[in-house]
Design brief:
The chain folds into three domains: 99 residues, Butyryl-Coa Dehydrogenase, subunit A, domain 1 (Orthogonal Bundle), CATH 1.10.540; 108 residues, Butyryl-CoA Dehydrogenase, subunit A, domain 2; 119 residues, Butyryl-CoA Dehydrogenase, subunit A, domain 3 (Up-down Bundle), CATH 1.20.140.10. The chain is an alpha+beta fold. The chain is built from eleven helices and eight strands. A hairpin with a 2-residue loop joins β2 and β3. The strands form two sheets. The protein has a four-stranded mixed β-sheet. A four-stranded antiparallel β-sheet has the order 2-3-7-6, with no helix packed on it. α4 runs antiparallel to α6, α6 runs parallel beside α9 and α9 packs antiparallel against α11. 41% of the residues lie in helices and 14% in strands. The termini are far apart. The radius of gyration is 22 Å and the shape is globular. The chain binds flavin-adenine dinucleotide. The site of flavin-adenine dinucleotide has 22 residues, from β1, β3 and α11. This is Acyl-CoA dehydrogenase family protein. Belongs to the acyl-CoA dehydrogenase family. Pfam families: Acyl-CoA_dh_1 (PF00441), Acyl-CoA_dh_M (PF02770), Acyl-CoA_dh_N (PF02771). Keywords: FAD, Flavoprotein, Oxidoreductase.
Length: 407
């Protein structure tokens, strides 16, 4: 640990103790309702004013211009404090980095400082009702009209859209080009005439997912992100950032793992409460869970370093992404087995959300692209195996057979 990082750690430790409330159990407030989003924005403002927002973001766009190692140190120190974890995915770790990569100077200056102050929440409008895996087959359309684009269609599974200010939205702008070449990415104001956001009730009781309906939504031409008809490059970059974030390797995640909004269950404590700590089978399960977590962390470090140093291609981000999805599922299964009936009817004082987590455990194999798609990417773009056959390759999109009529 360099002297610089060590003194940064001590300063952060002191600042956190003086400025943020602690949270029993080491996590943030649960829930994704309006109050939780409001609180996340307030907390982000406190971090910003204290000089701890956007630690690895460039200074000219409101960040601190420090290294991912500084962010990691801050994350370690902030465990146990109330942090705006809701803002990590997709705002800090996926959407804002894509604006950093592809935005015009004006877009960067407009959105990034606002994001880091907690004034702007960004979400992803990518998946459509016709299917999310074939992202390049999007049929939401944008048509140029003078200085404006007019957006029509529908997006779905947009996490947190009801609480967001802008959606990064992929739309088809040229129907005569092959499917990957006729797409454009837009920065769309969520709350404006023509946009209807409907929340979707999930199996665990949350309503974090949304579906949006766009009816002649007016978008200024200056809100195109990247090139007109160059939307696939932006989408690919968003997906890279998403895999990196969900896999646990994003330098922009603040205050802990990108998607873990709740503390890890303490398996030893769960086994002790159930009187099963001496059971060899239970002890093996606890060890397996610990090993999976350790390997996941090391895989992130190894692949992140490989991509940064050029030894691995960007699609290698799918490796930790896939491993975190499959290992998290297994670890939640283990937690349920160790907890026994306490998973659904916890004794007084015990964490009571394991049952609900079990219901949602497969979400990690879908969000940011499914585990099957991650395997396809690893085989084709990391291992160099033959590409999957695509009947629509090179065909004008208007001539591609659809299960739903375009437009
Ligand atoms: C927690 C979570 C958060 C999400 N957040 C967002 C968000 O903020 N914004 C957003 O736009 N979307 C979001 N999504 C949606 C997500 O991106 C999609 O669920 C995902 O891309 C899969 O799309 P689909 O559900 O339409 O399944 P489909 O694409 O219909 O696929 C169905 C099944 O077929 C398999 N399959 C499809 N094609 C292939 C193939 N070529 N080879 C092998 N198998 C294949 C898939 O793996 C899957 O098992 C989120 C999803 C989850 C679970």
């Amino acid at each position: 640990m360099s002297e610089d990082l060590e003194s940064y750690r001590l300063a952060a430790r002191e600042w956190l103790a003086a400025n943020l409330p602690t949270v029993d159990g080491g996590g943030a407030r649960l829930g994704s309702d309006d109050e939780a989003w409001q609180r996340a924005r307030e907390l982000q403002r406190i971090l910003h004013d204290g000089g701890y927002a956007g630690i690895a973001y460039p200074k000219e766009y409101g960040g601190r211009g420090l290294t991912p190692a500084h962010q990691r140190v801050f994350n370690e120190e902030s465990a146990g404090y109330e942090m705006p974890l809701l803002l990590n995915v997709p705002t800090f770790s996926i959407c804002a980095p894509a604006i950093l990569d592809f935005g015009t100077e004006e877009q960067k200056r407009e959105h990034l400082p606002a994001v880091l102050r907690g004034d702007e929440v960004l979400v992803q409008f990518l998946s459509e009702p016709r299917g999310g895996s074939d992202l390049a087959g999007a049929i939401t359309r944008a048509t140029r009209d003078g200085d404006m684009w007019v957006l029509n269609g529908s997006k779905i599974w947009s996490s947190g859209a009801y609480a967001a200010d802008y959606g990064i939205c992929l739309a088809r702008t040229d129907w005569e080009a092959p499917k990957h070449s006729g797409l454009t990415m837009f920065i769309v104001k969520v709350h404006q005439p023509g946009v209807e956001v409907r929340r979707i009730k999930q199996v665990n009781g949350d309503s974090e997912f949304c579906q949006e309906f766009f009816d002649d939504v007016q978008i200024p031409a200056s809100d195109v992100l990247g090139e007109v008809n160059g939307g696939w490059a932006v989408a690919s970059r968003l997906l890279f950032h998403e895999r990196t974030a969900v896999g646990g390797g994003s330098p922009y995640v603040s205050g802990g793992h990108a998607v873990a909004r709740v503390p890890e269950p303490d398996l030893v404590e769960l086994a002790r409460r159930g009187g099963r700590l001496d059971d060899p089978g239970v002890r093996e399960l606890i060890a397996e869970s610990h090993i999976l977590r350790t390997v996941a962390g090391q895989l992130v470090d190894r692949v992140s370093a490989g991509i940064r140093g050029g030894a691995m291609p960007d699609p290698a981000a799918s490796l930790p992404r896939l491993f975190s999805a499959t290992s998290n599922e297994r670890r939640i299964d283990i937690a349920l087995a160790v907890a026994g009936p306490a998973a659904v009817i916890p004794p007084a004082g015990a964490p009571g959300d394991l049952g609900a987590r079990y219901l949602m455990r497969q979400g990690g194999s879908l969000g940011g692209g499914s585990s099957e798609m991650a395997r396809n990417i690893i085989s084709e773009r990391v291992l160099g195996m033959p590409r999957e056959f695509a009947a629509d390759k090179g065909v004008p999109f208007s001539q591609v057979r659809q299960s739903q009529t375009p437009g």
